[in-house]
């Protein structure tokens, strides 16, 4: 059956059916399909085991997985400049993407890590951040100051 299918494939590949197909196929005896053992060295023929051969090394180096980067313990960026205040629900507004973790330090102390809430202030103002009222009072003092000098530490 397989031989007839193979012949049909060969005939269709040639594109012509005028080729004569053989009328009978010779069958092979089962002894033709016995396993063959390959021995590399003549002196090791007696002690050869039926295990698999050892593969030869590749001429190209193999790639190994690089170790995962470790998290930094300190801030990746530190900025110094002016900050103002506004009603930002306990958050800080910086020119970094929303959700960036920052720490704000002023003359009265530092905050814990707070989340950057939005994008701002405008670059022409010269300020590096707009702080929430409560954050401003904690690190700079009373609101009537308007602006104060801060250090902004950014964790990425």
Broad structural category: alpha/beta
Please tell me what the overall shape is: rod-shaped
| Binned strand content | 25-35%
Order of the strands making up the biggest sheet: 1-5-2-4-3-6
* Residues in helix, %: 10-25%
* CATH superfamily annotation of the domain at 77-155: RlpA-like domain
Could you tell me the number of beta strands? Answer: 6
The fold-level CATH name of the domain at 77-155 is Barwin-like endoglucanases
Sum up the structure in keywords.
alpha/beta, Barwin-like endoglucanases, 6 strands, rod-shaped
Verbal overview:
It is built from two helices and six strands. The chain is α/β, with parallel strands linked by helices. It has a domain at 77-155: RlpA-like domain (Barwin-like endoglucanases), CATH 2.40.40. It is rod-shaped.
Question: What is the topology?
Answer:
Layout: H1 2-14, E1 77-86, E2 92-94, E3 101-106, E4 109-119, E5 127-132, H2 133-139, E6 147-155
Parallel strand pairs: 1-5, 2-4
Antiparallel strand pairs: 1-6, 2-5, 3-4, 3-6
């Amino acid at each position: 059956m397989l031989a007839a299918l193979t012949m049909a494939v060969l005939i269709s590949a040639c594109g012509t059916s005028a080729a004569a197909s053989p009328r009978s196929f010779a069958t092979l005896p089962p002894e033709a399909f016995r396993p063959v053992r390959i021995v590399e060295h003549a002196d090791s023929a007696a002690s050869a085991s039926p295990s698999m051969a050892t593969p030869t090394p590749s001429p190209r180096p193999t790639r190994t997985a690089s170790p995962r980067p470790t998290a930094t313990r300190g801030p990746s960026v530190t900025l110094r400049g002016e900050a103002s205040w506004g009603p930002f629900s306990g958050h800080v507004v910086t020119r970094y993407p929303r959700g960036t973790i920052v720490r704000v330090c002023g003359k009265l102390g530092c905050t814990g890590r707070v989340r950057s809430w939005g994008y701002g202030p405008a670059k022409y103002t010269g300020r590096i951040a707009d702080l929430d009222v409560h954050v401003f009072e904690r690190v700079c003092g009373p609101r009537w100051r308007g602006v104060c000098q801060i250090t902004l530490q950014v964790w990425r």
